[in-house]
């Protein structure tokens, strides 16, 4: 796999010819909604499959999968258009396999209002699906937002393990540290919360829980450990999985903040330790990279010294953020954008995409004309170069895999980067709930 950066006067045809691939393949691998709207500085993924097959008259997907000793799920991952319509036509070229380096687990995060077609497109690439539908309230009670039964059912049909995502956050990402401490300091509230989580998982068909914790530091780590130990014992006795997602702070760029936290205490009590960065527009964060990948690498380097690498996951963000400038704390507007939207804004405003070598993430500036005023914007986002840097951390430290925040919109370029390097682990085969 290679990454090409769009230059002045490039066209989708000229790039395809340069690498000896079809325009259709280039468009599909990168999910180009507007293939003729290329932007200077845009990153494109160029893949070279290990094995391909030309469909013959009378072929079926199952027959092709069986003949190459692969799964239908793998064919769908390597040929994303098949998720929309599993019909194949004679003469069609299918990607059978890539030269992958290892198998990894992938954990996608979603809200219960995810569109069904987006969910179906995303599930072939996932091992786990963490569903954000429950917020912990006072006294360890749980508030739910809407019914997610169909999401759980669909996930299992694609051999994806559904995880109940539990936190003190609202759907807008608003934190309540006082509420978190109320639970951490009160065993009665803890017992109530744990019992409710187990009850919901049994009733809904979840197979595990993903607990998100904020504000972990040297002084309070014993409180979090005691709580996670208790919930671990209860969940594992019932046969459920337990994931622990730690929201690390990249804005401080202060690696020493975690130097005195003993993550190894969680080694034997959680099934996966996920280092992630949840960012919501409601947080009113100042303009900054969506993810500081260089800092994350240093963090994982330290953590992996005491924690088994096969229990560590790192997050991959899929969304960008658009700030109005100059930035005014608690006042400036911040917008969440998909990669498609970022690229279309760049094209329509004739902007150039730049790349920050420190955080390993792209950004751009553009002007918005409103009446007689000009409003400047700054967008930080993630592209193929960032995905490659993140997957390289997985390879270098032999990690369990990644956690995708989030899968509410389908991101073909991300999945191309993943599937061209890794096989995706599937832990369940039955679609029965």
What does this structure look like?
- The protein has two domains: 2-97, Membrane-bound Lytic Murein Transglycosylase D, Chain A (Roll); 102-324 and 378-424, Glycosidases (TIM Barrel, Alpha-Beta Barrel).
- The protein contains 13 helices and 19 strands.
- It has helices spanning 12-19, 23-30, 61-67, 72-78, 116-122, 149-157, 177-184, 187-204, 221-237, 293-303, 339-348, 384-396, 412-419; strands at 2-5, 43-46, 51-54, 93-97, 102-110, 128-136, 142-144, 161-167, 208-213, 241-247, 272-276, 312-317, 320-325, 334-337, 354-356, 361-370, 373-380, 401-405, 422-424.
- The strands form four sheets. Strands 5-6-8-9-10-11-12-18 form an eight-stranded parallel β-barrel, surrounded by four helices.
- A hairpin with a 5-residue loop joins strand 6 and strand 7.
- The chain starts with a strand and ends in a 9-residue tail after the last strand.
Question: In this structure, how is the largest beta sheet organized?
Answer: 8 strands, parallel, barrel
CATH class label of the largest domain: Alpha Beta
Number of helices: 13
What share of residues are in beta strands? 15-25%
Query: What class, by secondary structure content?
Result: alpha/beta
Level-2 CATH architecture of the largest domain:
Alpha-Beta Barrel
Mean pLDDT: 93
Which strand order spans the largest sheet, edge to edge or round the barrel?
A: 5-6-8-9-10-11-12-18
TL;DR?
The chain is of the alpha/beta class. The chain has helices spanning 12-19, 23-30, 61-67, 72-78, 116-122, 149-157, 177-184, 187-204, 221-237, 293-303, 339-348, 384-396, 412-419, and strands at residues 2-5, 43-46, 51-54, 93-97, 102-110, 128-136, 142-144, 161-167, 208-213, 241-247, 272-276, 312-317, 320-325, 334-337, 354-356, 361-370, 373-380, 401-405, 422-424.
